[in-house]
């Protein structure tokens, strides 16, 4: 596995690989790798002849400096995982390499259709940071494919939108959320949960499932009450709720009785850890 830290060196390597008719798969990460990342890498290796994994904790997407400071950094462990998985290239730039003139005056990418609603409303600037770093990585690596998890559903829609509207010749392939046996969605942030919080955390997906089952039975005729009951359950379990609602899965507008393809989106805090999850539903007429 090649460990590359400089953009110009990566450019030369990618150019050579393209001349050799290789296809490039990109798996962007912020490190602290888990089974979800490994499944994305496996998916990349099925589609592309070369897999590039990036590790960069992007400050532009953190609206909370404390959250950035506490984000787990496990490079040595991550390096060994990627080497054992047969990843071809690990791109591990530092902050100056990615933002040589600091972030304050850096050109940015915004996807206004999705970036300021729902989670974007709660975390101002977050999706601007996501769209900017993803675009930079696309420009640097020029992949044929890029792989993202469906747990971060709003982020996935933003990436798909910028690829379409900025005319990137990249196929975005998503992976269904990877979970523990108890239903908890895998996330690098889960490491920050206390032992007691790890027992409580699976209740988030539990109530998403229960909400889904209720919607399948009665539809969206009593949506407000369905959402209220779910929120009350979470509050009693000890969650602080940022977002829990039902949306159109394409537009992310609040769902109405007419919607047949919907998504339950949840963003909550458990202690000092933010957890997100979702579930897509296709309702029958």
TrEMBL record:
Cellular compartment(s): Cytoplasm
Enzyme class: ligase
Molecular function in Gene Ontology: ATP binding; pantoate-beta-alanine ligase activity
Residues annotated as binding (R)-pantoate: 61, 155
Gene Ontology biological-process annotations: pantothenate biosynthetic process
Keyword Ligase: yes
CDD domains on file: PanC
Protein's pathway: Cofactor biosynthesis; (R)-pantothenate biosynthesis; (R)-pantothenate from (R)-pantoate and beta-alanine: step 1/1
Annotated active site: 37
EC code(s) of this entry: 6.3.2.1
Keyword Calcium in annotation: no
Positions that bind ATP: 30-37, 149-152, 178, 186-189
Residues that coordinate or bind beta-alanine: 61
Pfam families: Pantoate_ligase
Catalytic activity as recorded in UniProt: (R)-pantoate + beta-alanine + ATP = (R)-pantothenate + AMP + diphosphate + H(+)
Gene Ontology cellular component list: cytosol
Keywords from the named record: ATP-binding, Cytoplasm, Ligase, Nucleotide-binding, Pantothenate biosynthesis
Function: Catalyzes the condensation of pantoate with beta-alanine in an ATP-dependent reaction via a pantoyl-adenylate intermediate.
Family: Belongs to the pantothenate synthetase family.
Quaternary structure (record): Homodimer.
Extra remark beyond the main annotation: The reaction proceeds by a bi uni uni bi ping pong mechanism.
PANTHER family named among the record's database cross-references: CYTIDYLATE KINASE/PANTOATE-BETA-ALANINE LIGASE, PANTOATE--BETA-ALANINE LIGASE
Record-given protein name: Pantothenate synthetase
Annotated organism of origin: Buchnera aphidicola
Gene from which the chain derives: panC
